[in-house]
From TrEMBL:
Alphabetized CDD domains for the sequence: MPP_239FB
Region feature (Disordered): 1-151
Domain of life per record: Eukaryota
Biased composition (Basic residues): 10-19, 50-67
Name of the protein described by the UniProt record: Metallophosphoesterase domain containing 1
Start-end of Low complexity biased regions: 87-103
Ranges of Gly residues composition bias in the record: 129-146
Pfam families: Metallophos
SUPFAM superfamilies: Metallo-dependent phosphatases (SSF56300)
Organism expressing this protein natively: Rattus norvegicus (Rat)
Similarity field: Belongs to the UPF0046 family.
Domain (Calcineurin-like phosphoesterase) ranges: 243-439
């Protein structure tokens, strides 16, 4: 049997057997041909081994066997395009199919596209061994584009865009939609690598927001949240920890408070009745008598003189809603913050203490027109967007929604929805200290953040709630 040469002629061939018969194209085989060395045929079921051995300048089977004496070995040409003999596994990326095996059957459009690609692969394989007008001219390196460039199905198949399109097409409808929407939402919510919090649809009604998220997501139920017992005042501090003593809403009633041992004092606002300079001086003297290494203070809605915009509007009013405050002259309250000489005062600002990044903000949802009040929604969200990521301890005067913000008398939740989303989704501090709602005194946790309502005064302004002690491991870089 003679294998086809470059011009289609058959040359002498060396073989061992004397078996006859016909090949797959119906032509007779000589006695010297072996059963596995069949000549390639036209567009029939040609074996992969025959196609590998057939080619210009090569005679016989094997690697170089059957060459004429003195003839140089013909260069081996191998195409990266999959052939029929390699099976269907070579025509599709195994990792992609394995990953999407449990995704269910693909849509008809994807199935039809895959079928067309497989047929194209078979057609190219046949043309490589056949030849003829418009077919590949007998080349084994794949078909040619009209411009003469050789094309490779394998290279096109592994194109990143095609793989992503196939992954989306093979996913069930719901998963495919979620996959694409997740990328869209991620691109919308991230701006320069930072997560963007949007105004919640239930922002104006915190009680309704709490009910919705609690019923549909269980957001405020165990095991997502739980009540926490504060550290006893007489408990020894673990080595390598920093002890924080948290208070809030003292309202110039600091004399009966028994302050425990600690390293850092945190006051979450409302340390006066109206923010009068005399009250601020008294509070500063009390701070000076405490032995804590650091004392960090923010203002609350009762520190009226600390809110310069509020004071400017108050003086312009015809009636005196706060008579003792509205009678103050601007020079008496413009620098009222400077009276706090025994502490670190934070107002939309940050400080690092013992390796802890601490941020303080006095704003809260509108509450009967007091200081540092803002409407719910975008106005408050703009203030919360000032909180940098990576903060360890967050101090705000008002609580987030669902955490120690229940007002039993009115049967309402009064926490801020945007503050909750900012804390849980973006900032995720280790400790969040606040007050404002005297009825919400206590400690809660959600697995990431510990929430402390440190209101010392009750709803009747009686300073009976003891300070809350929290121990946190000191950062190693402190």
């Amino acid at each position: 049997m003679r294998a086809p040469g470059p011009g289609g002629r058959r040359g002498p061939r060396r073989g061992r057997g004397s078996r006859g018969g016909r090949d797959s194209g119906g032509r007779a085989r000589g006695a010297g041909a072996r059963g596995r060395d069949r000549a390639p045929a036209g567009p029939g079921r040609a074996g992969g081994a025959a196609r590998r051995r057939a080619g210009p300048g090569r005679r016989g089977a094997g690697r170089g066997r059957g060459r004429g004496r003195g003839e140089p070995p013909a260069p081996r040409r191998r195409s990266l395009a999959p052939t029929r003999s390699l099976g269907r596994a070579a025509q599709r990326p195994p990792p992609l199919r394995a990953a999407l095996a449990g995704a269910g059957p693909p849509p008809p459009s994807a199935r039809a596209a895959a079928r067309g690609r497989r047929r194209g692969a078979r057609g190219q394989s046949v043309r490589r061994s056949g030849g003829g007008p418009g077919r590949g001219g007998g080349s084994r390196g794949g078909g040619r584009c009209p411009g003469g460039r050789r094309r490779s199905m394998w290279r096109t198949r592994w194109d990143a865009g095609i793989l992503k399109a196939e992954a989306l097409a093979l996913l069930p409808c719901g998963l495919g939609m979620a996959f694409s929407q997740s990328h869209v939402m991620a691109s919308r919510r991230h701006q320069h690598g930072r997560l963007i919090i949007e105004v919640d649809e239930y922002s104006s009604n915190p009680t309704q927001a709490f009910t919705f998220y609690n019923i549909n997501q269980g957001r405020f139920q165990p095991p997502h949240v739980q009540m926490v017992d504060p550290v006893p005042h007489d408990a020894p501090k673990p080595p390598g920890y920093t002890r924080f003593v948290c208070v809030s809403d003292t309202h110039s009633r600091t004399d009966p408070i028994q302050m425990p041992y600690g390293d850092v004092l945190i006051h979450a606002g409302d340390f006066t009745e109206l923010g009068l300079p005399s009250e601020v001086k008294k509070f500063n003297e009390w701070l000076g008598s405490l032995p804590y290494e650091y004392k960090i203070v923010i203002a609350g809605n009762h520190e009226l003189t600390f809110d310069q915009e509020f004071m400017a509007d108050l003086i312009k009013q015809d009636f005196y809603y706060f008579p003792s405050v509205s009678k103050l002259k601007p020079e008496n309250y413009e620098n009222v913050q400077s009276l706090l000489t025994n502490c670190i005062y934070l107002q939309d600002s940050e400080v690092t203490v013992r390796g802890f990044r601490i941020y303080g903000s006095p704003w809260q949802p509108w509450f009967y027109g007091w200081g540092f009040n803002l409407p719910r929604g975008q106005a408050l969200l703009e203030k919360w967007n000032l909180i940098p990521e990576g903060v360890d301890i967050l101090i705000t005067h008002g609580p987030p929604l669902g955490f120690l913000d229940w007002v039993p008398k009115k049967m309402q939740r009064v926490g801020c929805v945007e503050l909750l989303n900012t804390v849980q989704r973006r900032v995720q501090p280790r400790l969040h200290v606040f007050g404002h709602i005297h009825e919400g005194y206590g400690v809660m946790a959600d697995g990431t953040t510990t929430y402390v309502n440190a209101s010392v005064c009750t709803v009747n302004y009686q300073p009976v709630n003891p300070p809350i002690v929290i121990d946190l491991p000191t950062p190693r870089n402190s």
